[in-house]
Structures
1.
Amino acid sequence: MTNEWCGWREATERALYGPDDGFYTRPGGPGPAGHFRTSVHVSGLYAGAVATLLRRVDSALGHPDELALVDVGAGRGELLAGVLAVLPGEVAARVRPCAVERAARPRGLDPRIEWRGELPAPGSVTGLLFANEWLDNVPVDVVETDADGVLRRVLVRADGTERLGGPVDGADAEWLRRWWAPPPGPDAAGGTAPGVLPPGLRAEIGRPRDEAWARAVRTLRAGLAVAADYAHERGDRPPFGTLTGFRDGREVSPVPDGSCDITAHVALDACAGPSAERLTQREALHALGVDGRRPPLALAATDPSGYVRALSSAGSAAELTDPAGLGGFGWLLEPVGGACAGLLTAGGA
């Protein structure tokens, strides 16, 4: 890693995806599961829910001879392996699983899974594209208001030291005007003045994520694209940004030297296309049959082992759907073609 000044987007790209020493691409690294738990790692119920969604897509598309399941930001292929394990044989025989991941293919992965470092070609697949906690790792630039309330790019070195750079302009400034709603600064009378920004506000420019998601959706000829991620809405963006790091299961300062994950919440409302639907993960998983209700106590008397299994499953489901945790994640559903619209509504289910 070099220690020159650059924007957070460039620094994060090197830190996460550098060919030799990137956090995700370093040879022999443990992958995401070695540093934090995503929904995929919490329970097989998550893979089961994705399998249920894939079957709905399959039915909506009329059971095509070849059904794609594209996992973007696939980690070590855990989600694809879990889905393949629970699909009925007739569906599994037609599924073409594809992992999109910049790290090398892990050893021992199911040979049915295609492993590639970039998205498929536009319009080349029919089926379900699923991106679990991918967009939060698409690098973005960070901005901060200076003492005069002017938005400036934040520059950073590999050791995490920051300073303010030049003012934000062009397409990035336009993105902030449209999608960022900062609190107003003080006026001369001690009140607040619309259009005046207080110093020290921070935001992440989500434009690269909008573009990345649009490219992912375009890979589908027909079907459904889903992104599940940490998210916030325009009217509720955190005023000091969300950039952070993770290492060994703990949140740490984001230092772009390849030693930790670097992530920031996603403006899914900005990513959404005109036909998109947005749900919380709690709503989405409930629609796919996952909930955290405890099994009836009577089951403990008639089938003690079954009761213990059901209780464990309910605990995992509760964690996945907890509105204060994973259940509060945002799901962005983008149908391509009319057949896959509304698959998580009562009618679509």
2.
Amino acid sequence: MELTLLGTGAPAGLPRPDCPCAACARALGSGARAATALLVDGALMLDLTPGAAFAAARAGRSLGSVRQVLLTHPHNGPAVEVPAGVPQPGRVPDGRELALLTGHRVRAVAMDAPGTGYEVTGPDGKRLLYLPPGGAPAGLEEGSVGRYDLVAADVVGRPDALAKLRAVGAVGPGTDVLAVHLDHDVPPGDELRRRLAAAGARAVPDGTTLVVGAYDDGAELPAVPRRTLVLGGARSGKSVEAERRLESFPDVLYVATGGTRGGDTEWAERVAAHRERRPGSWRTTETCDLVPLLAEEGAPLLVDCLSLWLTDAMDAVGAWDDAVWADGGEKALRERVRLLVEAVRGARRTVVAVSNEVGSGIVPATASGRRYRDELGRLNAAVAGECEEVVLVVAGQAVVLRG
């Protein structure tokens, strides 16, 4: 089964007409995207958009053999001229199946938001799923749909849709995940590629033709790093960056190393803000005992943060007292750090760890403050050495240091 993406952008396209934002200003050349529309084997169109015939011609395709046009959006949208010879667009009711004379079978998938998703099975048995903008499948149960060979969805706008599909086994290691309905909420270029790769997804230019199921033949999928370290200063956006990397995965274990601080209302507000951002399917544990968690296999692990873990470790060994530090405290801390770094190296589960970068600012006025700064710098360097990807977040922008 062959798929041509006539467009890959949001309904308004990218750049949006008359939008002055930086993302739209940069969406030039191959970064420009027409509204998403898919052409399957030249016979089935999913969404009819303005200029579809010209888009097909640019991609080296013709709409002359299209036998069915189906709409996914919650409404029929503005009037679109139907190219000569192309049938009028229609919609399949949720749960109903349509069989085409070409051998394709199309099943309408119910959404948790207005719109219709379509599962297409080709004559060769390959299966693709196409979801409308802002939508995720509703009522999924484990094993209810089987694994798709390709999924085209609003990965940026609804990462939880991908998480739901992963949770029931509909998206697996061999599934090609394409981000479509791309809007100006994520800058194009390297930043878009980086964010999608962290979710195991990718974007392709308008006009790209793909063979559904080609990844089963050994082609390379976007690699999700097993271990990632996210560094940044205060309010840099490092925690948001770390959470974004795992929001398309179900059953993430969020490890909060800060614990609770009785009577500290400002700290309680910070904790509450973090919790409100997390998907409802994530679990949370408050602990600094990271080594056993890293040794276990299981759901992805998000550790926020290593700097508070270090504070706890230095408390435990009496590192703030010069005499204790000189009389075995330093050695005890080094051993704790060594065990943590070894656990990161041996981790079998996906791990995203957050840490503060404090070595670039004012030199602390106290010996204990300088000691903490130095030890955190050593810890960050040691953990970074064991990670496939290291990211520094500055002013909300992620700079890839490794990976």
3.
Amino acid sequence: MKLSTKFSLFNALSRVAILLLLVGVLPLVMSRLALLSTDQRLAQKKEKVLRLIRRTGISAFIEGGQSSYGSYNLLKEEFISLETIVPGPKIDVIEDSKRAVEDEVVQYRVLSYSFAQSGQNYLLEIGRSTGSIGETERNFRRYAFYILLVAVALTTLADLAFFRYLLAPFYTIIRQRLRHSHYPPAFDLEPVPTSTDDFRYLDESLREMMATIQASFTKERKFIADASHELLTPLAALQYRFDNMLADESLSEENQLRVVDSQRTVHRLRTIIKSLLMISKIENDQFTRTETVSLEELVAEVSEEVQDRLEVLHLALTYVLEPDFTVANCNRGLLFTLVYNLVSNAIKYNREGGKIYVLGRPASPGSGYVLEVRDTGQGIPKAQLPQLFHRFDKGTTSDPDSYGLGLSIARTIADVHHIDIEVNSIEGLGTSFLLTFPAGPVDRG
């Protein structure tokens, strides 16, 4: 999970936790707010009634012969009453009270206030039913909950957007420095623009490390080139001298056999050096991959190349690619070596009169193309399969011409072309190598 996703998820969960906490506290808060709102409304109505009394007199409410006045609205949600009382302590309270209205007991929030007017004491009561207060409370709670939900959503989206903006240099560093950076000479050492000190320090550290790797790679390539020249040149000279010695008619038969053995050793050394140099060059991405290759044409070329060996061992090679498949962004020489090594392996470890099949078919839809090299040879022991592609691992073979590098080269070529290679084998029945080519063009990164 990405860092930005984790951060946004944490923020969202923390806000949800806060929201749940508020939901628990909200009823108490909303109840208190509704009560305060009601008390404030009752106080405002009291002031309004008192102003009306001072302006028009008490007779607007209590006419001659009456001692009280009462008025309830149609739904009994509010009432106002005014009555004469005997002189006593000052009354100015707001409290809950029950009142009987038309044979129905209703719970009210009642403001009681005593005052004197024209030498007479009066008690003013203004009430509002607690049912209407509860409705106000529910409205408060509902709207507050909606606002909280919107706030959580907006702040989470804002955090996600800001965090992505904040981490943009970090992802740029990953793309330019760590991902698709397999070939040191192609390293991008341009600094990534950022105002964040931590990212700037990370970018500088990675650029320094990549510059060091680049310098080491350059030295290694030079060493490989020099080593190949220094090793292959004296071996070629030895080979030339041995050829001259064999041309000497005075050389005894015993010495001739020794020279031939020495030639085999030189040839073995030259082959090993060339194979190791090829692996090194492939791993260092020193082969261009800009060609487009038809697999059917490539397999036909490999088949023609090995015809002499097939005839000597009385083997039959059959290839069927239905349909053909075109590999883009590849190196034809390397792909030829890949298929040739697998076919050569099938020839080397086959039985006399055996068969070799090279079969091509589409993989599952959208998954590319599968090229299979199958033989009817002796098979490979199950315990040997995990080490099959290791360098210099010859398994149980006693073939003196086997160096344990052919399959290692095949794996290296497959990896650099993003080709999956799989081997299946049954002892006594044969071996099958499966090459799965990607569906789209090969990504040179």
